[in-house]
Amino acid sequence: xxxxxxxxxxxxxxxxxxxxxxxxxxxxxxxxxxxxxxxxxxxxxxxxxxxxxxxxxxxxxxxxxxxxxxxxxxxxxxxxxxxxxxxxxxxxxxxxxx
Length: 98
Fold this sequence. Notes:
Blueprint: E1 7-11, H1 17-27, H2 36-45, E2 51-55, E3 58-68, E4 92-97
Antiparallel strand pairs: 1-2, 2-3, 3-4
């Protein structure tokens, strides 16, 4: 088991993009992968809701999120444009983990 002291969770930032793209490609089928532009849109639309896990100075995981008022708002949206549903004062938090 790895020592938890080697792990850090912090807010994601644009400088993490190379790692975020690597994680995207490693974790999602091609049809569900998003582009650099889509990831940057997540980071700028709701910066406080996008976190990365760091291990030994390397980004090894990511958690994206948006806030919504009603889960029905996401129906019909693809993961690529789900951030368009973000409502800053929404009471429901929707997570996407990689």
